[in-house]
Amino acid sequence: MASTSTAPDRPTTKELIDWVHESGQRLTDLVCDLDDEQLIGPRIPIINPLIWEIGHVTWFQEIFVLRRGLSEPPIIAHADAIWDSGAIPHDTRWFLTLPSRAETLAYAREVTARVTDRLTHADAAAQLGYIARYAVHHHDTHTEALTYTRQTLGYPAPALPGLADPGATPPPPGEVGPLPGDTAIPGGRFGLGADREQGFVHDNEKWVHPVELAPYAIARAPVTQAEYAAFIDDGGYTRRERWDGEGWAWRTATGARAPVYWRHGPGGWQRRDFDRWVALEPHRPVSHVCWYEADAYCRWAGRRLPTEAEWEAAAAGRSTGSGGLDPARRRFPWGDEPVGPAHANLDWRHLGAVDVAAYPDGDSAFGCRQMIGNVWEWTASTFGPYPNFEQDAYRDNSWPCFGSRKVLRGGAWATRSRFMRTTVRNYFTPDRRDVLAGFRTAAVR
Question: 167-445: which CATH number, 3.40.1000.10, 3.40.50.150, 3.90.1580.10, 3.40.50.2300?
Fold first, then answer.
């Protein structure tokens, strides 16, 4: 597997070609062990048929890079009628007549080969660089989704070439256990969002704009499974006063009494890790909880979720010499050095989350840990456009979701390192429990 952990902000053409090739390979690696029936799967609202999703991701790359970028004819004449996610209703995707498994994988290989070939030509590379990278990151979001779809459906953990056995590659000694306590963040003006010198960013990160923050305190680490278990054991899911109105309606309708993949076993709480049940690891971050669950925990604990501006300031900000909030920001919590293997749990490195005290080299200037990697973190903020929002070439990336979703920050263990920076915004409806999402808390003012 081509390494992406030290790739620069603006990859060379060779690095971009490597990304295209590797992202296409990873797409198929994530499903190669599944049979044809598993590639269809049950019709449920939070997933796609896996065979359809592979075709869609490939179609996206073809239509933006080859067809629109270079005016090339479609490889499959009726591709738009089966893989356009903006035109094909979700439930319809199980009833389409799709190309066979062999034909779909051949289509994926063909598009990868054509895009890499076109990028070897200097004139095309100059024209296609931005949109080719956009398509790579579209692959990245879907390979993460394929990973947690396997969890949703109870399939085995993926066997990914180039990765060591996660059981044989624990974090270095000393990076275990909890990481309790808060860190104080000074108030002041902070620049939220990406600046124009950052190179590639998505439209919902554009552009940096000033926000005023009052001083606040935020947890050094995400909430652990042990901490969340204490909430459940204290009647967290049965006491109405711990939930807001929408959250209680969700809990009542779903009958939720714990995180979706938890159960009581002979020795205490267990969680389902893909297709196997394991004893709950107390110091790993709670994951697969929805926004409503995160908010209810905060109410129980006398805490709150941070806003996304508070989250980003804790991740990317630093203090001035006089103790205020410096307007200068870091690209990553640890500085401007690109993501390295000591900084964060990304790229499926452990095929799961690790203890919240792991990866101290990734600490922010304020001492917050794992603000990149391990689990996405819910914030209090509703997803919306920044001032003077500029839509990307892919119109459906952000704007249809404004106002209806909550913002998550930081990335997870199945997020690509090349995808991440402190300004990245993820966004899901507050009822989603399938994503690799946890949360950290902030002190109530």
Answer: 3.90.1580.10
Q: Are 54 and 27 in contact (CB under 8 A)?
A: yes
User: The tokens of 185 are what?
Assistant: 């963040």
Two structure tokens written together for 221: 């680490």
Fold of 13-152: Four Helix Bundle (Hemerythrin (Met), subunit A) (1.20.120)
Rounded distance, CA 11 to CA 132, Å?
A: 11
Helix (H, G, I), strand (E, B) or coil at 212: strand
pLDDT at position 395 is: 85
With b meaning 16 or more CB within 10 Å and e meaning fewer, what string describes 373-405?
bbbbbbbbbebbebeeeeebebeebbeeeeeeb
In percent, how much of the chain has pLDDT > 70?
Answer: 96
- Report the mean per-residue pLDDT for the chain: 93
Find the DSSP H helices in 30-187. Answer: 36-40, 50-61, 69-70, 79-83, 101-119, 122-152
Cβ-contact 130, 200 below 8 angstroms: yes
Q: Residue 15 is encoded by which pair of tokens?
A: 């690095």
Mean pLDDT over 50-74 rounds to 97
Q: What is the pLDDT of residue 170?
A: 59
pLDDT digits (tens, 9 = 90+) for 238-247: 999 999 999 9
Q: What number is the average pLDDT over the span 255-284?
A: 97
Which phi and psi (to 5°) does residue 347 adopt? 60, 30
Compute CA distances 178 → 22, 120, 129, 135, 356, whole Å. 35, 48, 43, 38, 6
pLDDT band at 174 (very low <50, low <70, confident <90, very high): low
The confidence score (pLDDT) of residue 127 equals: 86
Backbone φ/ψ region at 378: left (φ over 0), alpha (ψ -120 to 50), beta: beta
Question: What does the alpha-carbon distance between residue 183 and residue 220 come to, in Å, rounded to a whole number?
Answer: 6
Kind plus residue range of the DSSP H or E element containing 228: helix 225-233
- Under DSSP, is residue 356 helix (H, G, I), strand (E, B) or coil? coil
The ranges assigned to domains in the chain are 13-152, 167-445
Per-residue pLDDT, 236 = 98
What does the pLDDT read at residue 9?
73
CA pair distance 124, 65, nearest whole angstrom = 10
| CA nearest neighbour of 179 among 304, 305, 362 | 362
What is the model's pLDDT at position 180?
96
Phi/psi of residue 353, nearest 5 degrees: -75, 160
Q: What share of the chain is helix, strand, coil (3-state, %, to 5)?
A: 35, 15, 50
